[in-house]
Design brief:
Elements: H1 3-6, E1 9-11, E2 14-16, H2 19-84, H3 87-94, H4 98-111, E3 116-121, E4 126-128, H5 144-150, E5 155-161, H6 163-169, H7 171-177, E6 179-180, E7 194-195, E8 198-208, E9 214-223, H8 229-238, E10 243-244, E11 247-248, E12 250-256, E13 259-263, H9 280-288, E14 293-299, E15 302-312, E16 318-327, H10 329-379, H11 394-456, H12 466-497, E17 505-508, H13 509-527, E18 531-534, H14 537-542, E19 544-547, H15 549-566, E20 572-579, E21 583-591, H16 613-617, H17 624-634, E22 639-644, E23 648-656
Parallel strand pairs: 18-20
Antiparallel strand pairs: 1-2, 3-4, 3-9, 5-8, 6-7, 8-9, 10-11, 12-13, 12-16, 14-15, 15-16, 17-19, 20-21, 21-23, 22-23
Helix pairs in contact: 2-8, 2-10, 6-7, 10-11, 11-12, 12-17, 13-15, 15-17
This protein binds adenosine-5'-diphosphate.
């Protein structure tokens, strides 16, 4: 199913990635990037919202917990208030019925679940306590609540009760509050190792006579240490005893300073974690700075979303903390579920986009693929290929243009074909003509030259006048030039018609090719007063190589002929040889006008003649260098020219070392 899109189309040997797979992967990349970022942002937002909601809820739970707490305090105060109004008490304070009164008060204390219930006189001196050993006679007027009650103010608050005071109220109470600190990893270091004081929900009320005079005070309260009534009530009322995976979802704790004195947070062994202490950061914020802490916190064993608030005594001093917390796990699980569903939806979307992308891409790439195939067929030379037009978009447009292009191309190719045939015909005719003319001219010219030589040498009788001799010499020179020219055309004809044969034999280059040319050019050289210098002569004369002597003679003839023709009158011509590792190098250099740098390769082209004064004066064909180049290249060598304009020009050519290599 995928191969058409994913496969690669080999074009010119290069494996190309298909457009389809590129498009699909780009699609996927875009969707992946978009999906991923929105999923991350989305889950973050959802997560944050869930946690913010949880914090709001715990804040609310703390308020509810305070209500339970205050309710308990109020209840204590109410009990005291009612008791203080009882006749019996008032009478006993005015009349004195000590024993009955104590029994009665003790009954009230027990009935209402108080730990302490104590009566003082109007100076604050204890008249009677309600616990063994019923200590009396001590002064309690220093106590903030009692002091206020003596001034007819009733009050209720949480108070710290030192050990010696507890001892007066009842020795069991001393034992109840005594608590060794349990080592707690994140707690703040403290010099103490145990707690001996107690924390009490305490109230004090004045006892008044009918005239509203203070007769005494009644104070009492309930110790919070190891008394789990309030925290459990909070759990039941606020959290309704909810459980999550077998754990209490909501918990409450009362701290005396930083010490858990009553809690329903469980330690590892499942017991109430009393004796452990609050974490250091909570300590700093709540106890040191008096601010509420509402955040996640690690409580004993688990992460909770927590709320801590300071508990203050009557004098508004911080003495402890009220804490509620709900397990973070349910919220974390909720967040996890939301995130999973987010990812699930994103994944489904991705799959959908992938399939959609595939079908959309296919509809785009199919016609393009067809185009690509068609171009390949055309590249192979078949112009009959056209593509079907499938859509009205850019690709459709492309197909239309493509088909038009193919048609134009085909028409042009047909025209070219006809033209080419014509040209070939024309060329054939031209070659035939050149061949015919040169061939037909060559022979009579040879005869002409022969008779002119006989005349010049006076073999047909003496030439009487000097003018006659001069005329014969001029004729001979011109006939030579004509023959030279004809030779060049003949050579061109051979090259063009592919009839040039290279018959290589091992020849002494100097003797076989250069020397005869120098002999031929002797008169011309003298006429132009030019001097030939053979460089590196000794090895030059010795060098032997595989070459076609006739052809190589043409090369030297053309180069030396040019040097004589275009060189400076009275100048020098250097002809040299050099043996290189791989090849033999020959050169013909002459003084003179030289050749401009941009023409150095052009002069080797057919019919090239530089349009200088010299060329106009000296007849030529523009074929000499072309022929020389063809011959050198057919020998496997190279030919080129170097020149310093206005000074010299050097024609160099190489022949590969064939013979020595064998
Ligand atoms: P032709 O000499 O018949 O014109 P060639 O093919 O031998 O044809 O040379 C082509 C052209 O190259 C010449 O017309 C001339 O302009 C230039 N040329 C060749 N040899 C020389 C040279 N030694 N010095 C200056 N120009 C030269």
């Amino acid at each position: 199913m995928w191969d058409k899109v994913k496969g690669s189309i080999p074009v010119g040997g290069l494996p190309f990635k298909s457009l389809g797979s590129k498009l699909i992967f780009s699609f996927l990349l875009v969707v992946l990037a978009g999906g991923l970022s929105s999923t991350i942002i989305g889950t973050r937002m959802v997560g944050n919202t869930i946690m913010a909601e949880a914090q709001k809820k715990v804040r609310h739970d703390l308020d509810s917990a305070w209500m339970v707490y205050q309710e308990k305090l109020r209840r204590i105060q109410d009990v005291l208030l009612l008791t203080a109004k009882r006749d019996l008490i008032i009478r006993s304070l005015t009349g004195g019925q000590g024993e009955i009164l104590r029994q009665e008060l003790e009954r009230v204390r027990i009935d209402y679940g108080l730990d302490v219930l104590t009566l003082t006189d109007k100076k604050g001196i204890v008249l009677t306590r309600t616990r063994i050993p019923y200590t009396a006679g001590d002064f309690q007027g220093n106590d903030e609540l009692v002091r206020r009650a003596l001034q007819k103010e009733m009050g209720a608050s949480t108070e710290i009760v030192p050990q010696e005071e507890l001892a007066k109220e009842g020795p069991e109470l001393v034992r109840q509050v005594f608590m060794e600190f349990v080592p707690t990893p994140k707690a703040k270091g403290r010099p103490e190792t145990r707690e001996t004081a107690g924390m009490m929900l305490k109230a004090a009320v004045p006892i008044l006579d009918l005239n509203n005079n203070v007769l005494g005070t009644l104070y009492g309260g309930t110790l919070l240490n190891r008394n789990h009534e309030i925290v459990d009530k909070i759990k039941d009322i606020v959290f309704k005893g909810e459980q999550y995976k077998g754990k209490d979802a909501g918990t409450a704790t009362i701290f005396q300073w930083d010490l858990r004195i009553t809690t329903n947070v469980k330690d590892k062994s499942g017991l109430r974690a009393i004796g452990t202490r609050v974490a250091m950061d909570v300590y700093d914020q709540v106890l040191e700075n008096g601010r509420a802490w509402i955040d996640r916190a690690f409580v004993v064993n688990d992460w909770y979303i927590t709320a801590y608030e300071p508990i203050r005594n009557m004098k508004k001093e911080i003495i402890g903390i009220l804490y509620v917390g709900t397990l973070e796990e349910p919220y974390a699980d909720l967040r996890k579920n939301v995130i999973y569903s987010f990812f699930g939806v994103a994944f489904l979307g991705l799959v959908l986009v992938f399939f959609l992308g595939y079908f959309i891409t296919r509809s785009i790439t199919r016609p393009i693929g067809e185009l690509a195939k068609a171009t390949e067929v055309i590249a192979g030379g078949d112009f009959s290929q056209e593509v079907s037009i499938q859509s009205k978009d850019e690709v459709g447009h492309l197909s239309v243009s493509f088909n038009r292009m193919v048609r134009t191309l085909k028409a042009t190719m047909d025209e070219l074909y006809v033209l080419n045939n014509k040209l070939q015909d024309l060329n054939r005719h031209y070659l035939e003509m050149v061949g015919f003319i040169t061939h037909e001219l060559n022979q009579p010219m040879g005869v002409l030259k022969g008779f002119l030589i006989l005349l010049r040498d006076e073999s047909l009788g003496p030439l009487a006048a000097a003018k006659q001799k001069q005329a014969v010499a001029t004729m001979l020179r011109n006939v030579n030039a004509l023959i030279n020219m004809i030779q060049k055309y003949l050579q061109l004809g051979r090259i063009e018609s592919g009839r040039m044969e290279v018959n290589k034999t091992v020849i002494p280059i100097f003797a076989e090719t250069l020397n005869p040319i120098l002999e031929d050019e002797k008169q011309q050289l003298e006429a132009r007063r030019m001097q030939v210098v053979i460089e590196n002569e000794e090895p030059f004369r010795k060098v032997e190589e595989e070459a076609d002597a006739v052809l190589l003679r043409i090369v030297f003839s053309n180069l030396i002929g040019n040097a004589v023709k275009y060189g400076r009158e009275g100048g020098k011509i250097w002809i040299g040889f050099q043996e290189e590792p791989e090849e033999l190098l020959f050169y013909v250099k002459n003084e003179g006008q030289g050749i401009p740098a941009d023409k150095l390769t052009k002069v080797f082209e057919k019919f090239t003649r530089l349009q200088g004064e010299l060329e106009r004066r000296r007849g030529g064909t523009g074929l000499g260098l072309f022929n020389a180049k063809e011959i050198v290249e057919r020998h496997g060598g190279r030919i080129w020219a170097e020149s310093e304009e206005g000074k010299w020009v050097n024609f160099l050519f190489t022949l590969p070392k064939g013979r020595k290599g064998k």
